[in-house]
Amino acid sequence: VERTMKTLLLLGLLALVGTASAQNATEPAPTDAGNSTANEGDGMFEDMEAAEPFNPREAISNLVEYQNEHPDFAAGIATWITVGTIIFLLAFILFLYSEIKAVLVARDQDFRKKLIEDGYMSNGANFSELFEKEAATMAPRPYISVGAMLLMFIALACLLYPLCDVLTVIGLPSAPCLLIITFGAFFAAICQATFWMFIIWSCTRTYAALVFLLISLTGQILLPTGNPILMLVWLAIAFGGGYAYFYYLPDVYKDKPEEKPMWVQDVGDFTVSTDYNEWGSAFNKAYEAETAALKKQAELAQQQIVEGQKRLTENTPLMGGTK
Question: Percent of the chain scored above 90 by pLDDT?
Fold first, then answer.
């Protein structure tokens, strides 16, 4: 286990220090003219020495030596990684469950609408009741999906946090490390969620899935730059564009669906209320809808058993039947 932790630390370190080495390599060396100019001054820079370039091999050696002297260092990193992995898996499962269920409901609704539009079925009271039941079942979906995204953010932050300790050990500046990890984990969670939204919804909402893919890919391209201004601009464009596509345009064509372009597609209701009473109401509606469906299925199964026993009695003379 100790060797495995060393290997993981070394791989992560190499990825981190690559940029630092490149930056140090591109720094201009002091020239004679610059030295002579400094010497002609008031003597403030006479003792100034050139900054020692970052040495990856020395940093790795220091890290291994520190780990050997402090065995708990690797154990602490392993704890953060384990906790982050568990939380991420939980968030991933919740997110998949919520969105796949929404896709299945959307496909059923699209199929029924197509049958009604083509005249194969009539839009009666049963369909209205079914739509209401599906809406009640999907009421907690926004809260589950958004909650899963928040758990992804926490999980990624836990996975990245050990890098701050590594930077401190090898001597690189780590003062803004927590801030960088916080924003990095937040942006990475958005990219992860939108990428899986693309995969899940691509089978039934192609254009909407492409919007999710565009948000995810642009975020993954800009995230390694570490430029906070670019990331904030991307965040504003992503949220603004997503709101315009998934909320504004569907509302524009809500009263005139015949004029709605084929590339305008929604992915269901994704409104999250800030009122905690609405949270409980959404889950309560889903619970009641699921309970009613299970109760109805149990009644149908019991009715089929009773009818089967009745037919068996009628067809058996020894049990009072006539056949």
Answer: 28
